[in-house]
Amino acid sequence: MVTNLPAEAKAKWLKVLEARTIEEKIKALEDFLSAVPKHKGTENLREWATKRLAELREELEERKKKSVRRGLSFLVEKEGAAQVVLVGLPNSGKSLLIQRLTGARTRVSDVPFSTTFPQVGMLKYEDIYFQLVDTPPILPGRGPFNNRVMGLCRNADLIMIILDATRDVVKDYLDIRGELESAGILLSKAKGRVEIERYKTGKVGIKVTMMGELVDATIEDVKRLLASYNIHNAHVRIIGRVTLDDVEHAIFGNVQYKPSIVVVNKIDVGDVRAVEYLRKNTDVEGSILGVSALTGQGLEKLGELIFKELEIIRVYTKSPNSGVSDKPLILRKGATVLDVAKRIHKDFVENFHYARVWGPSSKYPGERVGLDHVLMDKDIVEIHLKE
Ligand SMILES: Nc1nc2c(ncn2[C@@H]2O[C@H](COP(=O)(O)OP(=O)(O)OP(=O)(O)O)[C@@H](O)[C@H]2O)c(=O)[nH]1
Ligand SMILES: [Mg+2]
Q1: Which end of the chain is more exposed for a tag (fewer CB within 10 A), N or C?
Q2: pTM for this prediction
């Protein structure tokens, strides 16, 4: 059901998007909520906005406390090739895992809730680093940190669910997944989905790319709906079977997919069949890895798994007269030479002449290609500009 929001509420949503500080965000979200009429069609939206508001208020509270003066905060700035947030129940071993994987001095203890603030460590994988974020534990449905941990997950590039092999891993997994879902974070890609990329400057108009079908609407309906939210510059991708309702969800961004990995920890003391048991009794789509943070078993596989689930590639640039950069660009799988050019400088798109590619995507070393050439992990790209 499309929410049928009054114009006033739609305008207020725009203010939410524009808000910069936490205080502004809270104020804007409160204003928005008060303008949303209460009926069945807006139920999910209201629940989501209320949760989001609780999250922001807790964050603000936290900042006001003296702990923040010591430099502790729930905000974690991204570093490295991707941010991976660990989420799990108390005592599952999140802090010990991060300590073992990155050397970060996290607090490890038998006492549940020993972690009360996020802490980071950098995990090296070949020539890149992933930022791992240790978090306070969640208790499905009732934990004091749930909202803020969900806030961290929402911002993450990948979520790592940590289970304890000495417990019922199926129940714990489903509980954690349920908590994420109720915060609008989905662990599997919906069959149909909508992606809206808003342009701040430059391009004008709404471009709709169909990689699927609109079940109950036309492209014109989509444009009208966006216009009613004052969105006039955007690229909309329709993937799979999609309803107008899905388009509206995408406008709010209240449901989003996150790649994930499930780590079953404590296999040194837990049931050896825990991984198999989880695989059989759930529909986990991604990787499940059994490890022991204590003995180190299985930990060596994590970097590669993270890389794989993120669906990213590394591309090295080279200029015509010099060597290859040693720091790769991190791009989405399926990225093209155009994406590389954009990353370097907008002049590189405007003045692009051709590129040469060495590596897995090239037919022969130094193959001459255009902007639409699809790149692969470990390619080297050299861009030539018009004279
Ligand atoms: N045997 C065994 N014990 C582990 C393993 N990983 C963690 N532990 C122990 O489990 C307890 C909890 O570990 P932590 O890393 O503090 O757990 P946590 O998930 O960070 O706990 P909270 O901060 O409360 O969420 C500690 O006593 C650890 O030594 C493991 O792989 N095997
Ligand atoms: Mg901890």
Answers
A1: C
A2: 0.83
